[in-house]
Amino acid sequence: MADSDSVSTQAEHAEEQALNDLTDEQLYSKVEEIVRGNDLLSIETAMFEKYLKRVDPKQDQTLVMGGAPAPGGSALMEPGRPRKRSKSRSSSTERLLKLTAEQKSDIAQRELEELKEELEKIEQDAEKELDNYRAIAEEGDCRQADLQKAAYEFNRDIVVGAVNNRTKKILAEKVERYFNERLKVKVAVVEKLRLKNATLKAQVKKLNQQLRQKEEMGEVLHEVDFEQLKIENQQYIDKIEERNQDMLRLKLMAGTTLQVLNSHKKRLQKLSLENTRLKDEIEMRHKMLEKLDADTLVAEEDKSKAERENNYLKQKLEDYKVADDLTYVREKSDLYVLKNRLKIWERKADIAEMSMNANKRSWYHVKSSIGERHQFGKPLAVESDNN
Does the pLDDT value for residue 103 go beyond 60? Predict the structure, then answer.
């Protein structure tokens, strides 16, 4: 025992010397490594304590009440003791309570299975609570929809429809009839739900009887069957999830396709309008072209006519000979004399026309007076013949 104490003392002195030789950074890294190791040991100790509580609660209670300390925990539980005694006692305790790697692995595997079961139970409870909350939310939505519908109908039938046009007040008969109809509807719904509840109770009773018959016949499902059903259920859930992902992908593709289709429709509509505009413009250009062709033909005819007239004038200009001065003066004098004579004859013609008009008027008066005489003189001649 003394040898072991001396060896441990020498080891401690060597360790202290080694720690004194380290730098601050090395000491810091050393402390971090020790802290990580302590954290791992704390997690491991907590796992072992949980396993011990679950396997043998009485033994765990004796350990807590004053039995052997947990591995690696004596130094933390008794910080006031000297370092040598704490380390020696902790090492002796570790030698007494040290577990093999196989045992640790077995304990860890069991704890992992327990954690999985607890997680599954928590998931089941959470799923039940979620279903309850979903049902409550759905019920709330239904109630809200019913209330909104009832408020709309009340506003439509009573607030607006039951107002007297003369007094501008709501008629009590319509209000009473409205509430009586609503009560009848609620009674019918209650009766329907009562029948549905009775049907469900009968189904539950029938299923319980079938379950008792299967128990009596030994056809009850065992744990292996439940595990098989769980595996099949998980497979079906995976398939459903896969189908849901496919459906979501197809919905996204359909949405994208619909967006592309709408864009193409808009583009087609725009191109159709542009096509119509271009057709109208082409038709207008054709009409303008026809008009230009017609104008071109007319212009060509006018051009040919002007060319002929120009050629005629050119030919006439080439054939024209200028007379001498005396001849020009004589012809100019003759032209002046002829113009004077023309004016005289025009004045004579005007005078003759005025006299002719006067003679026409006098002849018209004479003719009219002769006609009146014949009209009044003929009956007198007839009477003289009769006498």
Answer: yes
